Protein 1
Amino acid sequence: MHRRVRRWSGGLAAALFLVSVSLLTAEPLLLAATAIPLIYVAYGALSRVPPGTDLQAARSVSDAQPTPGEPVEVELTLTNTGSSSLTDVRVIDGVPEELAVVEGSPRLCTSLRPNESATLSYAVMAKRGTYTFDAAAVRVRTLSASDEVTVDLPVAGDGALTCSNTVSEVPMADATLPRAGTLPTDTGGSGLEFHSTRSYQPGDPVNRIDWRRYAKTDELTTIDYREEQAVRTVLVVDARPPARVTPEPGFPTGAELSAYAAERLFDALSRTSVVASVCAVGLAAEDVPGGLGPDGLAWVDASGGHAAAHARQVFDSVGRAAARQSETDAAGEADVSDDGQPRQSQGDHTAQVTTADGGTVEDPDLLAVLARLPPTAQVVVFSPAADDWPVSLVSSLAVRDYPTTLVSPSLTRGDSLGAAVAGTERTARLQRAELSGATVIDWDLDSPIDVALRASLADLFSV
Amino acid sequence: MDDHTTLSTRMPWTSLATVVGVTAVLVAGLLGTVSADRAAIVGAATGVLLALSLWLSGWDRWQAVGTVLASVLALPVAVGLSVATGGSVVTLGAELFPVSSQAGVRPAVVTLVSQVFVVLGCLTAVFGATAATRGVVDIERVGTYGGVVVRTTVVPFVVALALFTRGAVDFLQSNADTPGVQQLTGEVLTRVLGPVFDPVPGRTHIAIFSLLLALAAAALARGLDALPLSELVPETSDAPDIDGTVGAVERTLRWTGRLALLAAPVAGLFELGLGQESMAELLPGGLYDLIVAVTAAPGLRGLLWWLFLSGTVASVAVWFLRRAVQSSADRVGSVLAPYVGGGVITLAAVAVAGPAVGAIEMALGATPAATAVDQLLAPVLDVYGPETVTLALTVVALFSVISATGQLWVALATSYLRERTAGVTLAAAGLFGASAFAATLSTPTWLVLAGLVGAVVVWDAGSFGTTLGREVGTGAATRRAELVHTGGTVAVGGVGAAATLGLSGVAQGAVAVAPSVAVAGLVVCLVAVLALVAAIR
């Protein structure tokens, strides 16, 4: 796009002014001095962007597959491949809208001689998902800045940033969860460990008949072994609006981090024999493809087909909800919520649930989770603990004897007073959760979630 | 990260340094050519103060403090503007005049006007460059500042008006004996004010006294009612029952007022209808003397008048306070601050009235207009006193600030000045004008040319930097492009300056015609060049 800027036309007025003053004061120097503004007018009128201007751009991304919350260095190199010098080249890299620039500037203005290059480097905060860089916007101006050409310059090199969390390479199954997915139960059946004997019933497997006893007593007896049932594990992701807080703009929200941790665990569990259900709390119907269940939960049961795909959808929904929140949130830089109250019941729910610390909770989401949980299950709650809701849930679960783990990404960053207060409140909540009998994993974002899970979940699953 | 809000007016450091540096150097050079040194320095300082005031009036963080400061700074700005213009004229007038011959008048006037314009141009340039550093010239801020100055002016204006009226009344009253209009107005005033404040002794004045009493009682009752007396008493069991006392006093005052109001017409009828003798006969001797003594006492009248004033002031003040506590502190601050500032300015003007008037008289006394000034100023000072004159001058100076702000606002509202580049445009215009007028003084040619080119460089670097700040942001690396661009502009200016020198050299050597013909020829050339450029564009 070519554009002329009439920025020197004021020179004519200046010339007229000089003529007037000259005539007024009879000063000939001023008449001659009209040459100065007029030469600027001519300068502006005559300068053109040289034909044959050619630029090339290349981008490199330091880490094309980063983890969420990690700054990623991006470099854009611009080369003047034309034959003439360009005095004023402005370039704006097409950073994906969703990614926040946390360091440096994706913009540059410089002069380029033929075959000279300039590099701009900046860092973006990685977020879950794949983000494609747009073409770089380049504007070339003449020395007088009265003529400009603007183009969208296609960029060679890295064009996308993928922040995925498929964990095929993570050595989790062999290292962290040695007995994951098996929980010895007190019912006899097929298995390895002896449980009891009983009289033979037609249809019992031949290999479980106690042949020695038959030889001795001529009676058919069947041996029952301790049955080993696959454990149901329910992953509860706290995606309610209070959890969708972020310590700094561009940083993933608490809900997104929770979903990310849950997704990693889900992937790890799905390759063992653990039956994992996924449940996201606090989503709106428009966030989830296919809508929510009647109880307001996004619940994926492991038993159904395509459970992994459905679970993935739920995790993506959390990201969508967080994005929607940040769009509607005009402030855009929500601080860690200090609203200590759990969301109150909106309907006419009058049921009360007893928590371990003797309190009662009337939260509809909490009631829905408790109602939906199978009678035997291990529950892993993922929440940034930005309010008391996860603590209430954990203590309610403790009362019902569910083995419970609370995984909490730490959102307190920075040295501000608000961050310190939020951090202290969160620590107190985690302590309360621990006191009520849950295993608490305090995920410091500087270490990978795998390390935190490895450190703590091994205990849980070897009960 | 306030870059997002102020990005549009921010410019990168290199451009800003160019604007400020070039402006500072050129202003220093140009002011050196002005012989009114003090006025010139005050002018430059006024530019900085004006920019600071504009910034303060839009200071969102401490709105009330900013408004108070901007309001109080209105006085230095006003005085600075007056000194930069009036002071230059007076100083130069004393220096250039009287001229030896009739032919010397015109050059002297040209020199004087040019120097004043140089000072004003430098003031504008300093203001523009200072404002450009923070991008404070926008229509909203200028409007706010205009409002602040107008409200600041209200207090000194009202006080000056009151003092002026009082002075005029006193003057007219004292002139009641001299014939003419003064006598008429003086007599009217004496007739109106005499019976109220200075009654004729030896007779009763029940009607007017009762009216005054009624007014004073009513105002006092209102004032008492408004004051939070009972709220100030501690809430303990042994505290005195001040509520009851206040109620009783108030009731008494109201009844006194009502009775006095009723008594006034009756007493008036009696006084007018019966005359003093009949009244003296009608009333017992002692009572009549007492009434005469009470109703005709000027001291008592004065007391009643002051009671009326204090009651009114108390109720108005309490009403104001009640309104004030109901709104936010910042709002109250920013609404009231200009009035407080105006009060401070009034007090300051009154405090320095004597020395200020002396200084003005001395400065004016050195000019050729000394006799005329003496004839005009001395009687005015005699009649109104130095306080009123100083206040009036202050108000006039404040009006000049209002007018300057108004012009700036109009220029912004009509888009003659673009908000984004207003600061640098003003700086460049001021420098250009100052350089042009400096050419008519004994300024070296190189300085004039440097000033003209420098003005263009200031504008170019500023507007280029602003565009750069908007498009690329201040966080990006832009120095190289800025330096290259400014270098280009300076180079073109150098060519222009060389052309100017060449043209004036050729013209000086080759002018064989009458100067008027040469001028006409140059004008024709100029028009031709303009037409050519227009055609090219």
Protein 2
Amino acid sequence: MNPDPAVRAALQQRITILAPVSARLHAAHVHPPIAPHDWHGPAARAFADLEAELRGRITAADELVAALLRESRLALAGLEHE
Amino acid sequence: MSEGVRGFVVPPDPWALHDPDGDPVDPALGGPLRVSPPSGSTIAPWPAGPDGGAPAVGGHGIVVVATDALLAHAERLDALATALATDARGVAALPPLPGVPVPGQHIASVVLAVRSAAGTAERARVALRSAIRSYAAAEARERARMLQLAAGIAVALSPLIRALVLIGFPAFVVGRLAGFPAADDVMALRRWLIAHPGLITNPAFVEAVRSAAMSIDETVSATVFLPPDAVAEEGARHGFEGVEVGAALLVGAAAPFGAFRDGPVTVDRVATLPGDRGPRGAVERLARVPEGDQVRIERYQAPGEPPRYIVYVGPTETFSPAPGDEPWDLTSNVAGVAGLSAGSIRATEAAMRDAGIAASDEVQFVGFSQGGLVAARLAADGAWNATGLETYGAPTGNIELPSGLAGMAVRNTDDLVPALAGPQLDSRLLQVERQAFAPGSPIPDELPAPAHQRSAYVATATVVDAARSDVVRTQIAAMDAFTEDYLQRDGSRVTVMVYHASRGAPATSGAAIP
């Protein structure tokens, strides 16, 4: 591994940026936006489809960001053990 | 017989409508809370006017746009879309790692996923707001259609009304001379209404009342062979607009029969008490609205600050059209809707002056039923420095309010009383409504107009306090903060003053207010 301080700083910056993004996406994944049940009709059905798509995209983004964050932390930990 | 608030026994009034001690109404019996945000707020479906206040909404009035739950959802989507857009920009700016690839990951795919989620959230946000605006537009069209239909019916029925007037007027005069309607007749009508609560506790009936209230001028025009707009135009020349014209006509037409004749009022301060804290939430505010004694004023003092006041105004005490010594009666109701000088308004202003309220002092007004009408009239009057207004079941839709008032107008959609003022024309104040007894729920049959009872509004206020949308919560917090701001300071003090007003010359000392 490259012990370059610039790489360590870049990894720390990545983690700083990704941690809150991951937390927000995970919260949105765990408590997904679902329109109230008392809203009915064609517009409500179209909107429900759109929200289902949104939930799917949030889940995908949550998984990818969490993985990148985890791997960035592992990489930083690896550098600090050198 | 019931015990009066001042300790004397009062006879049952066949014209009384409210029962302050009525059985509680379960909030679960009602429908969802529906909300019309004030103009200028980000989610209002109508743009703010040129002064940042109400837009020109036309004669058909504004409509309620969405449930509290749907608005809360829209607010959540707003926040989510904004946060994801910020996150997408942040992820796109991730620093490169020279010579050190992160195993198993491609940053580009991460950026794409977050951007995709942000884009979909934005589409959902826009779609939901668009749906809310579409619903508002559809309801506005339906409201306009109803009012046009009512005006058409008024014109079509004018020959029948004309015949009824020609035949009915002499019969009415003879009946009045013979003592009709006697108290027993009124009690019979009251019993019939109580036995059939579903008739008037019905949103369709309430909308019909609203349309009829707006069509009195057309009805009169057509009945006396004038063009439909003639009476409205004549009313406008005398400063009356919309439903005010019909109410003013009613006052004028009833005067020869001794009805709706106002007179001087006297006001007595019956109690001065120390208070401990300000009201928190809608239920507590409504609970402080007096009954029997008609006005309660709370003064909040903090060292080095000008005093602040909350003026609570009670509901109609009697619906008798014949004016007696009670100024909170039908006469004041009709005069207040017409924009005329009403005894209850003059009495409340006299109480405010007695409490020491100066024109520059900040005042919140809270009122139920006629108390809400009085509160709205005073908040709209430039003589007082109104900062907040909260009304329950009040016929105030035709009153144009100033911009920047905290608070809300709360009404039950199955309560006919607010409909007596016609459609909701003012859009500066948050409008909140709810059906007190949803379809299929049992309607109480102890009192007439169950949806207008204080107990029904306590149920709705309970739902208001549990609202999730920022649109509603912001206004509750603004009303609460008015007193909390002062009471958090050392040396703050609360004084409660209670007033009783009567129509007629003072019995002992003091001058009547003309």
